[in-house]
Write a structure and sequence with these properties.
It is built from ten helices and 13 strands. The chain is of the alpha/beta class. The chain folds into three domains: 13-123, Helix Hairpins, CATH 1.10.287.70; 128-249, Rossmann fold (3-Layer(aba) Sandwich), CATH 3.40.50; 276-333, no CATH class. α8 links the parallel β8 and β9. α1 runs antiparallel to α3 and α9 runs antiparallel to α10 (261-271). The two termini are 47 Å apart.
Length: 333
Amino acid sequence: MRVPPILFPTRQLHPLRSIARRIGLSVGILVLVAMVTWTGRHGYRDADGGPLSLLDAFYYASVTVTTTGYGDITPISPTARAVTAFVVTPARVVFLILLVGTTLELLTERFRQALAESRWRKRVRGHTIVAGYGTKGRGAVDTLLASGTLVEDVVVIDVSAAAVEEARNAGFTAILGDATRTPVLQLARVEQADAVVVTCHRDDTATLVTLTARELNGDVTIVAAVREAENAHLLRQSGAATVIVSAEAAGRLLGLATDQPRAVAVLEDLLIAGQGLRLVERAAREDEVGGPPLPGEGLLPIAVVREGARISFDSPAYRRVQAGDVVISIGSE
């Protein structure tokens, strides 16, 4: 199967639109020369001795502007020769410029694409792959950017041409293809990636993407979103380090908002990147070992993660930090 190309960010005029404009101008020049010839047809001589028809005028225009010049139709009157010298010849030059310019533009675009892809392949590493650029994917990308991830360190994969074009317009490198396929993930350089974010519309698709990514890179961090809680364990068994149940989480927020709307407002601050509150994780410091985690500048510890298990602030184990623990704090943007 054909591997899709890597599409890099662009804000230029679409090449097909530019080529269509050139073709339109070329056709206009052809029609102009034909009409000029038809208007002064009595000043031209055909090799068969007959009068020039409208078809003959278009034939003469086509062989003239393309510099084919068979010589079977020639200007014989001074007026026709003047028109050929001062109208047809400049039109021929413009036509050739358009023809050569279109060819060069096609070749230049292909060369630019190949050069950009070659350079990207050499430098890309430690990047984040986002499989699915829908609502969840865009939200994940916004959070990544707000946390300091560079635009050039994000690669988007989606099966929708519209989504890929939207990602390109936003400045991201994008691949139009199916992230469940090994060649597509290899094209995104999953072997050199630091993280893979799976935000597919279907849970079975998310599972296949996770399995494929884990097979290609055993060390990459994979986070995935699923719609149904009953499928979360499948993602974890497939290799996802973190699984977010999107439908269930939204339902809990809706239920909480009916009774505790201000608490939900605080949660919204945590969820919206770049504003309000934020969560920060860090390694436990040496001066904290044996005691509780210490507040930092603008940060309030609320939990400790020890060997993958979360320890909340009301647990006795929270007050005895161990080496290797991860401290979770809450702060403001």
